[in-house]
Write a structure and sequence with these properties.
The complex is a heterotrimer of chains A (320), B (216) and C (415).
Chain A lengths: L22 H21 L12 H4 L9 H19 L4 E3 L9 E6 L8 H9 L12 E6 L22 E6 L8 H5 L5 E3 L5 E3 L9 H5 L6 E2 L14 E3 L11 E2 L5 H4 L6 H5 L5 E5 L6 H8 L3 E2 L11 E4 L3
Parallel strand pairs in A: 1-8, 2-12
Antiparallel strand pairs in A: 2-10, 3-4, 5-6, 7-9, 11-12
Chain B lengths: L1 H18 L28 H7 L71 E3 L5 E3 L3 H8 L1 H9 L5 E3 L8 E3 L2 H4 L34
Helix pairs in contact in B: 3-4
Chain C lengths: L1 H17 L5 H27 L14 H16 L3 H6 L6 H25 L22 H29 L5 H27 L12 H28 L5 H31 L6 H8 L8 H19 L6 H24 L18 H30 L7 H7 L3
Classes of the chains: A alpha+beta (320), B mainly alpha (216), C mainly alpha (415).
């Protein structure tokens, strides 16, 4: 069993007398310890390639909701500097607050969508998403006529031309649910819903546990599995703190209805690029908006997975 | 004895870790940037109204450069009853993907195969509706709407067709497109498009990329 | 007071020292484990630098073996406290000392759980965001926040109970009942809660019909109370052999009955689940179909789940028969049960929840080499911790390490 405690290791005999340790066993145990330490150092060797280790300022940065205006100013300046250093171009980074009396709703006309995926790429360009590995907030599903069974969907269609006979196309992105499950499950409140209905993420607060990605019923959330890569000549310099400023490795992101455009009164990028005019967006609280007209006059509209109880703000409809 | 072996094992591990012998991530094929045409907001065509507004070349709209005001235009029909485009107007219905000129294609079953259903035979530079209104070419949406009522009503509300600019009119103007910015009035149906590439998976092998598309 | 503190530090120092002392088998075992841990640390360092892309996870399958192992080990931690029930509720004296071994296993298991969660985080440098009061702690809405509380609380409970009982034994004092009995009873309830909260992590997600089912919670408890005591049965026999510690066969057979009943319940719940998924034929069974039979040409998990089911059934039959009174058969049944339940909880629960995705897409998952090395490293770390705990506690329980021989020990150590 265990040897009698007469051969301890690591400590040279100090006090007088008694057995102490002889030189041989001291050398032996030191050698083992030294080789162990060397192995530990070698195992940690990959850390020498570590880039982007947070500075003390970034490490201690508070949650978005706790930042005072001067602190937010400092943070925005820091982000401006970081983008300038990395891309050589000076962005404009602002913190867009929700507008009063506004609740955004998105309507998508399934009669018109032709599945060209221009919305996917306009979104990628507008929101500075990583090109490699690829992050795309919008996923266009090709569905066969006659069914809404998502199991029959195919996001990987690649025909020569679209639309294809016998199919319709349904782009899916964050539905900005009224009862968002992602907000409920985030352990650190890094994602929450703001007054105009947009569910936002504080990229500097997210710990990357991906619980929200598991909870989302619409496959809307994306994770940065490694350092994102944005080509310099396609970066969008009009940035917002909660929206399209460049993200880091290890945090979540998703569609935010182009905060930097919509909270300045403009249409989101996916809408503007759609060649078929299938996408409609606006303030549902304004009775004169296009979306109010659609909700009043179009006869058939569906909310994806209505039964899950999320109450999305994204409505699919058909003409006539 | 065991301690010596342990030391050797640690030393060997140090060497192996230092030589970086395993766990190299698989090389992912690099993802090409998408073609810039997929990022463009441009409409498929330029309408007459846009052409005039932008100050472009409107010589194509000045019909009496070629036509004679005193002569009436004679229409030619083929044996099936379809209209035959004269060679000067052979391109008005656009070209197909192979570059061949398309025939007139507005209305099925030859419902609309008479130029003067829309064009005014007494004044070629204007348009006419069936109830006798004469419209300028830049006012073409009213002509389209005189037959396509529900679509026209949707267009007026901003729900059919493309909009860009500002949803909040207080902050800026909205930019509405007219019918002919997207639809060729002589062949209004959209031609099929080439779609942007399919999404690229993070781990291509596990997404089954390269396998045949399995029928669902 | 100062004397008390000094006594305590002497106790800690002696415990720490004895962890480095042992026979050749001890050194070989610890050496092998250390090597595996170092390889795991290296693999994690690569992951820390390059991001989680070095694993096999993707947006479609965003949780993998890390969370699968976490789920299994939480069950083991919960069940380790099961030993407490017969001892303190049924006053079974034979198992008394063994409670400490069970709770030490719980401590090692919780450390493993914390490690598995930490390696799964995309930004572990932001761990402080989770601390209530300093960060933003989304309690009570987020089940993960509940999990943080119950796991850390369970760790503290078990560290307190074991630490106190061992220290009292070291000092040769009778432990004061009020200082540990209430905590023991809290620990019984708390053990059930840690695993139920972990189950609720999955159950609460309405967007994943495979998980959003009320049977998940009971299945977790049933499978945990099968695998946990099974692990303890095996561990106790190892302790008996290696440390010459007297453990009566009766203790092992008491644990056997726990494993037996829990396995029967586990299999019954499996039958319930299978019936519900496949009899009604609704659209929500896609994940179960993928798991058991393959779907749309993808069938990576099918051999795994059927192996798990066969293992569980064979284990159940052995346990039910008097055959399992013999230790050889009991050990075989325990091993089959542990492996079967590990597969079931890991690959049979976590991964199919993501396949197909919420939008019907089929993307499969295989852990990468790096991911596997990190998992092995954490398992080795857990075994390392448990071995160290045992190395410290067995001499205390056997009376070889106590305050009385402090001077003798000090002399022998060359002070």
């Amino acid at each position: 069993m265990s040897e009698p405690v007469s051969r301890p290791n690591g400590h040279p005999s100090g006090a007088a007398g008694h057995e102490g340790m002889d030189r041989r066993s001291f050398l032996r145990t030191s050698a083992v310890l030294a080789s162990g330490m060397a192995a530990l150092a070698a195992s940690l060797a990959p850390l020498r390639n570590l880039r982007d280790f947070p500075s003390m300022e970034r490490f201690l940065q508070k949650h978005y909701k706790e930042l005072t205006p001067p602190e937010m100013r400092k943070v925005l300046d820091r982000i401006t500097r970081e983008v300038e250093t990395q891309y050589g171009l000076r962005p404009e980074v602002r913190d867009y607050k929700p507008m009063d009396g506004v609740e955004f709703v998105y309507c998508l006309n399934l009669t018109r969508c032709i599945g060209c995926r221009k919305c996917v790429h306009a979104c990628v360009a507008e929101n500075n998403q990583s090109r490699d590995p690829e992050i795309q907030y919008i996923r266009v599903l090709r569905m066969p006529h006659g069914s809404l069974d998502l199991e029959k969907s195919d996001p990987n269609y690649a025909p020569d031309t679209v639309p294809e006979k016998g199919f319709f196309y349904m782009p899916v992105q964050c539905q900005q649910c009224k009862k968002p499950p992602c907000v409920k499950v985030c352990p650190v409140r890094a994602t929450w819903q703001q007054a105009d209905g947009i569910t936002v993420i504080d990229y500097d607060w997210c710990i990357g546990c991906r619980y929200c990605e598991a909870a989302c019923p619409y496959f809307a959330r994306r994770f940065n599995w490694t350092r994102p890569w944005i080509p310099k000549d396609r970066i969008n310099l009009n940035m917002s703190y909660l929206g399209n400023r460049p993200r880091r490795q290890g945090v979540m992101e998703k569609c935010h209805f182009c905060i930097q455009r919509t909270r300045a009164g403009r249409y989101p990028a996916c809408l503007e690029v759609c060649p078929a005019g299938a996408r409609k967006f606006g303030n549902i609280l304004d009775p004169e908006s296009e979306v109010s007209y659609i909700m009043k006059n179009k006869r058939v509209f569906i909310q994806l997975k209505e039964e899950v109880g999320t109450s999305p703000r994204f409505f699919y409809y058909f003409d006539v | 004895m065991v301690l010596w072996m342990l030391m050797l094992a640690f030393a060997g591990l140090t060497a192996a870790l230092g030589l970086d012998l395993w766990s190299h991530p698989a090389q992912r094929p690099s993802i090409p940037l998408v073609d810039a045409s997929f990022l463009s907001n441009a409409t498929a065509r330029v309408s007459a109204a846009d052409l005039v507004k932008s100050g472009g070349d409107t010589s194509g709209l000045e019909c009496y450069t070629c036509h004679d005001k005193k002569e009436t235009v004679k229409l030619t029909f083929d044996t099936n009853g379809g209209i035959v485009l004269p060679k000067e107007h052979i391109d008005i219905a656009g070209t197909n993907s192979e570059g061949a000129f398309m025939p007139m294609a507005h209305g099925r079953n030859d419902r609309n195969n008479n130029c003067f259903n829309c064009h005014n035979e007494t004044n070629l530079e204007t348009l006419q509706t069936r109830d006798g209104r004469e419209l300028k070419i830049t006012e073409s949406p009213q002509l389209c709407g005189s037959c396509h009522g529900p679509t026209y009503r949707d267009w007026e509300a901003g729900v059919h067709g493309r909009t860009s600019g500002y949803w909040d009119r207080a902050l800026g103007p909205i930019d509405r497109k007219v019918c002919t910015s997207c639809h060729n009035p002589h062949a209004p149906k959209f031609q099929p498009w080439k779609p942007a590439p399919r999404p690229h998976a993070l781990h291509p092998v596990m997404a089954g990329v390269g396998q045949e598309e399995k029928p669902h | 007071m100062i004397k008390g503190a000094r006594n305590y530090f002497t106790f800690l120092r002696r415990c720490a020292r004895i962890a480095f002392v042992g026979d050749w088998r001890y050194y070989a075992w610890m050496g092998v484990l250390s090597i595996i841990v170092l390889v795991g640390i290296n693999a994690y360092a690569r992951q820390f630098v390059n991001g989680l892309i070095v694993t096999g996870m993707s947006d479609q399958v965003s949780w993998g073996v890390y969370i699968a192992n976490f789920t299994f080990i939480v069950g083991v931690a919960a069940a380790a406290a099961m030993l407490v029930i017969p001892v303190y509720i049924y006053d079974n004296k034979e198992l008394h000392d063994l409670v400490i071994f069970g709770e030490l296993l719980a401590v090692a298991a919780i450390l493993m759980c914390l490690a598995f969660v930490a390696v799964d985080l995309g930004r572990p440098d932001r761990f402080w965001h989770l601390i209530p009061g300093i960060g933003e702690f989304n309690f009570p809405h987020s089940m993960l926040s509940w999990d943080v509380i119950v796991l850390n609380g369970y760790l503290l409970l078990n560290v307190h109970i074991c630490g106190y009982l061992l220290y009292c034994r070291y000092r040769g004092r009778t432990p004061a009942k009020w200082f540990y009995i209430p905590f023991v009873f809290i620990a019984i309830g708390w053990a059930i809660s840690i695993h139920t909260v972990t189950a609720f992590l999955y159950v609460g997600l309405g967007g994943r019909p495979f998980w959003n089912s009320s049977i998940v919670g009971p299945r977790f408890i049933a499978s945990a109370f099968t695998a946990g005591p099974a692990l303890i049965i095996l561990a106790l026999q190892v302790i008996r052999r290696v440390a010459n510690y007297q453990i009566a066969d009766k203790a092992l057979l008491t644990l056997r009955s726990i494993v037996q009943v829990s396995m029967l319940i586990n299999v019954f719940l499996l039958v319930n689940e299978v019936f519900k998924e496949f009899y009604s034929g609704t659209m929500h069974v896609a994940s179960s179909e993928y798991l058991f039979f393959g779907l749309h040409g993808h069938h990576a998990l099918v051999p795994w789940i059927w192996t798990a089911i066969v293992f569980n059934l064979v284990a159940m039959f052995i346990l039910v028969l008097p055959l399992s009174h013999s230790l050889k058969w009991l050990n075989a049944a325990c091993l089959l049960a542990i492996v079967g339940i590990w597969i079931e909880k890991g690959m049979g629960l976590v991964v199919p929840g993501f396949i197909p995705t919420q939008l019907g897409e089929m993307v499969e998952y295989t852990p990468s080499v790096n991911e596997t090395l990190v998992c092995l490293g954490i398992w080795a770390f857990g075994l390392l911790c448990y071995t160290v705990f045992l190395r410290m506690s067995i001499p205390i329980l056997q009376g070889q390490l106590c305050q009385a021989n402090e001077q003798a020990g000090a002399r022998a150590a060359g002070h």
